[in-house]
Specification:
102 residues, mainly alpha
Length: 102
C-alpha cells in the first residue's frame, strides 16, 4: 500500500480530531449533563444491540488492521484508542502510524 498523500493525511488527522474532540466530547458532555442517559440506553434493547455491534466491530477491526499489516499497533492498543476516543479517532491514528515492514 502506498503512503498517504498530504491531503489524505490531513483528512485522517481531521477525522481523528473530530472523533476525539467531537464525538467523544459530546458523549462525555451528555453523560455529565444527563447521568441517567446511559442507564436508559442500556435498558433500551435497540440501543444495546448497536452498542454490542460496535464492540464487536472494534475487535474485528483491531484484528484486521494487525492481520493486514495496516498498523504497527497491537490489537489491544487499537481497542484502548477506540474506548478512549471512538472509532473515528482510533482508525485514523492506527493508519497514520508508520507500518512495520514485512
Amino acid at each position: 500500500m502506498a503512503p498517504f498523500s498530504k491531503a489524505e493525511r490531513l483528512l485522517l488527522w481531521a477525522v481523528g480530531i473530530l472523533g476525539l474532540a467531537g464525538v467523544n466530547g459530546v458523549f462525555l458532555w451528555a453523560i455529565a449533563a444527563r447521568p441517567d442517559a446511559m442507564r436508559e440506553a442500556l435498558a433500551n434493547p435497540i440501543a444495546l444491540v448497536f452498542m454490542i455491534e460496535a464492540g464487536l466491530l472494534v475487535f474485528l477491526l483491531a484484528w484486521l488492521f494487525r492481520r493486514l499489516g495496516l498498523t504497527r499497533l497491537g490489537w489491544a492498543w487499537f481497542v484502548v484508542l477506540s474506548l478512549v476516543g471512538s472509532l473515528a479517532f482510533a482508525i485514523p491514528v492506527a493508519l497514520l502510524l508508520p507500518r512495520r515492514e514485512r
